[in-house]
Design goal:
With 193 residues, this protein is mostly helical. The chain folds into two domains: 89 residues, Orthogonal Bundle (Rna Polymerase Sigma Factor, Chain: A), CATH 1.10.1740; 69 residues, Orthogonal Bundle (Arc Repressor Mutant, subunit A), CATH 1.10.10.10. It is built from eight helices and no strands. Helix 5 packs across helix 8, helix 6 crosses helix 8 and helix 7 crosses helix 8. The longest helix is centred in the last third of the chain and has 22 residues. The radius of gyration is 34 Å and the shape is elongated.
Length: 193
C-alpha cells in the first residue's frame, strides 16, 4: 500500500489504492478502514449536503455507509465499479431509503382518525340502507339525459364544464339538467319518507 513506514497513513489517492484498501478492509484491516473513512467521510458529507440532507442526517448516513463498507468490503467487485462509485452508490441508496421512510411516517395508534367507527344500531343501519335503495330507484327513474349528467358530474367527479365540453352540450343545458335532476331526487325522497 504505502512504503513510507509502519505508522504512515495508507494512500487513498488512486482507484488502485482504494481497491487495495477495500481488499484489506475485507480481511479485517482496521488501519485500511480508517484510511478509507478519513478519505471518503468528508466527500460523502458534501455529496449528501448538496443533495439536501440536513447536517445531522448526513452524519448519520455517513456512519451507516462506512459501517456498510466495513461489513461488505468483501462484496466489492472492481469489474463493476470503481471503489469511489461503489461507496457513493451506498451513500445514495441510504439517502433514498431515508427519504422513503420520511414520506411514510409511522402511524400514531392514538390518532382519532384511526379509531374504529362506533357501530350504529340496527334501526339506524336499516334506515340508511332503505334510504340508499330509495335514492337508487329515484336516480333510475330520472330522464336519461338527467341521469347521465348526474352520473358524469357527481359520481365521476368531473366538472360541469368538462362534461359540457366533452358531450358538446352548452354549459347552461348541463346545469339545467342537473338542477332538474336534484329537484326530482329531492321530491322523490321526500315522498318516500
Amino acid at each position: 500500500m504505502n512504503s513510507e513506514g509502519p505508522s504512515a497513513e495508507p494512500s487513498v489517492q488512486t482507484p488502485s489504492d482504494q481497491g487495495n484498501l477495500l481488499r484489506a478492509v475485507a480481511a479485517g484491516d482496521r488501519r485500511a478502514f480508517a484510511a478509507l473513512f478519513h478519505h471518503f467521510a468528508p466527500r460523502i458529507r458534501v455529496f449528501l449536503l448538496r443533495a439536501g440532507a440536513p447536517s445531522g442526517v448526513a452524519d448519520e448516513i455517513i456512519q451507516d455507509v462506512m459501517l456498510t463498507v466495513w461489513r461488505k468490503a468483501g462484496d466489492y467487485d472492481p469489474d463493476r465499479a470503481s471503489p469511489a462509485a461503489w461507496i457513493f452508490t451506498i451513500a445514495r441508496n441510504r439517502r433514498i431509503d431515508l427519504l422513503r421512510t420520511e414520506r411514510r411516517p409511522e402511524l400514531d395508534p392514538h390518532d382519532p382518525a384511526l379509531r374504529p367507527v362506533e357501530g350504529e344500531d340496527a334501526e339506524t343501519a336499516l334506515g340508511r340502507l332503505e334510504l340508499g335503495a330509495k335514492l337508487l330507484r329515484a336516480i333510475e327513474d330520472l330522464p336519461k339525459e338527467q341521469e347521465e349528467a348526474l352520473f358524469e358530474t357527481f359520481f365521476r367527479d368531473r366538472s360541469q364544464g368538462d362534461y359540457a365540453e366533452e358531450s358538446g352540450l352548452p354549459l347552461g343545458t348541463v346545469k339545467s339538467r342537473l338542477r332538474l335532476a336534484f329537484a326530482r331526487l329531492r321530491l322523490a325522497l321526500e315522498e318516500a319518507t
